[in-house]
């Protein structure tokens, strides 16, 4: 296994990780921003107020984007596992 192969595999792993995590993180970020603006406008300073909307938003995002996320992960793992024989020789 050459250093270039290791770097390529690492880059692909990071790309897949970012692609799979991005929808969940973006939804949590947007919901957190909206709740923060609401809290600033109403002067309600409750730390737990953003927890339930974020939880619901992430759950809905997982229901909507879940099949795509699983297919991306399965495709990547299939590529890695089928490439093992070429890495060993």
Give descriptors for this structure.
single chain, 89 residues, mainly alpha, 3 helices
Task: Summarize this structure briefly.
With 89 residues, the protein is an all-alpha fold. It has three helices and no strands.
Give a structural overview:
The chain has one domain (3-88). Helix content is 87%, strand content 0%. The chain contains three helices and no strands. The chain has helices at 3-42, 51-82, 84-88. The N and C termini lie close together (8 Å).
What is the element layout, followed by pairings?
Layout (H helix, E strand, L loop, with lengths): L2 H40 L8 H32 L1 H5 L1
Order of helices and strands: HHH
Instruction: Tell me about the largest β-sheet.
Output: none
Coarse shape? elongated
Distance between the termini: 8 Å
Low-confidence segments, given as residue ranges, are: none
Average pLDDT = 92
Strand content: under 5%
Radius of gyration: 19 Å
Overall structural class, as computed from helix and strand content, comes to mainly alpha
Roughly how much helix do the residues carry, as a percent range? over 70%
Number of domains: 1
**How many beta strands in the DSSP annotation?**
0
Number of separate helices: 3
């Amino acid at each position: 296994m050459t250093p270039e192969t290791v770097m390529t595999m690492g880059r692909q792993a990071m790309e897949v990780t970012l692609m799979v995590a991005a929808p969940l993180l973006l939804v949590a970020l947007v919901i957190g921003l909206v709740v923060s603006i609401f809290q600033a406008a109403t002067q309600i300073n409750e730390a737990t107020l953003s927890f339930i909307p974020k939880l619901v938003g992430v759950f809905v995002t997982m229901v909507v984007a879940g099949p795509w996320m699983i297919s991306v992960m399965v495709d990547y793992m299939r590529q890695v596992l089928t490439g093992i024989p070429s890495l060993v020789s």
